[in-house]
Amino acid sequence: MSPIEVLAMPEVRPLLLEPLCAAYAVHRADTEAWRQAAPRLRAIAATGESRVSAELMRQLPALEAIAVMGVGYDGIDVAAARERGIAVTHTPGVLNDYVADLALGLMLAWAHQVPRADRFVRAGHWAAGPLPLGRKVSGARLGLVGMGQIGQAIAHRAAAFGMQIAYTARSARPGLPYRYLPSAALLAAQSDYLVAITPGGAGTRGLIDAQVLAALGPQGCLVNVARGSVVDEAALIQALQTGTIAGAALDVFENEPQVPAALRAMDNVVLTPHIGSACLEVRQAMADLTLANLAAHFAGRPLPTPVPECRPSLSAPQEPRP
Ligand code: 8YV
Q1: Atom 11, ligand 1: residue with shortest CA distance
Q2: DSSP labels for 252-314?
Q3: Does residue 24 form part of some domain?
Q4: 181 backbone dihedrals φ, ψ, rounded to 5°
Q5: Cβ contact 64:293 at 8 Å
Q6: 234 and 136 together in one domain
Q7: 253 alpha carbon to ligand 1 midpoint, in Å?
Q8: Residues 83 and 109 in one domain
Q9: Is the residue at 251 inside a domain?
Q10: Residue 322 lies inside a defined structural domain of this protein
Q11: Catalytic residue among 170, 173, 274, 321
Q12: Average pLDDT of the residues of the chain
């Protein structure tokens, strides 16, 4: 029997690519050679950063499944996939703790000025006087934009820091002990730290805009561990430059891997290169789950983790959930 042929998007890294190549005949999308195999390609392996458009799907008449190694799948045209009955899977659950740890780490790094303090010591500035004073995380007000599994993991950790926790989402989540506010602006007005942890995509594009940043105010800090698209980056830069907010800690950007020079120049901003799931254990679990989804698909078994829009019980597509 000839092997199953799979297209690997350029973002797929060795942790997934190597076992993928062991199990399937893999064609890499960052070479031109895959085009000859296009009529035979039955699956796409992608990551949370990949773009899989309706146009690409049109070039693949045998496509049956798109397996995303990432919890976020905003780069995949799921509506187009559903129309053709193409299954889309992702990797929820296995990265909750790690992303939540980073969210707390970014808040602490900003408040305690860890990167800035490190630069200060290395540059030999200490002898000339102290670093300007930092801020406090313990006891401060935390506003979570999004209260899915990762949002809840952040809240759980923040509670141990004695933070006062509130959130916004499309609707209140019954049974959670946190205060619900119906909009990001109302939440921001009552937050010291506003943390974005909502899916990307059309439903949340520019959700954190100039108005929300103004509501966060001159003592407030924005933390983004969601997607760059959730924040209006131009409005954020302006808010930081004018002192409309105090600072930001960002793991994701509108146009990765490009980070605007204005952000890179600011001392009150902590920047990390989309490392929310970037540790060996988590990425291994994500790769394993991606492979398990593909294996289940080709064996005709139920998919371990289809995206919500592709779950068998759903008849209509759903908007991304904050
Ligand atoms: C990774 C992510 O950058 O899970 C997501 O949605 O953005 C990240 O975990 C990536 O998808 C790893 O493959």
Answers
A1: 48
A2: --TBTTB--HHHHT-TTEEE--S-TT-SHHHHHHHHHHHHHHHHHHHHTPPPSSB-GGG-TT-
A3: yes
A4: -125, 140
A5: no
A6: yes
A7: 13
A8: no
A9: yes
A10: no
A11: 274
A12: 96
pLDDT of residue 2: 87
In degrees rounded to 5, what are phi and psi of residue 46? -140, 175
Which residue in 244, 249, 223 sits closest to 142, CA to CA?
223
Query: Are 52 and 194 within one domain?
Result: no
Q: What is the mean pLDDT of residues 85-93?
A: 98
Q: Are residues 101 and 231 in the same domain?
A: yes
Distance separating alpha carbons of residues 83 and 93, to the nearest angstrom:
27
Our answer to whether residue 227 is catalytic in this structure is yes
**Which range of residues forms the domain containing residue 294?**
5-94+281-310
pLDDT confidence of 320, banded at 50, 70, 90? Answer: very low
Task: Classify residue 74: in a domain, yes or no.
Answer: yes
User: pLDDT-derived band of residue 200, with 50, 70 and 90 as boundaries?
Assistant: very high
State the number of CA atoms in the 13 A half-sphere of 237 facing the CB: 12
- Mean pLDDT, rounded, for 35-63: 98
Evaluate: CB of 75 within 6 angstroms of ligand 1: no
Domains held by the chain: number:
2
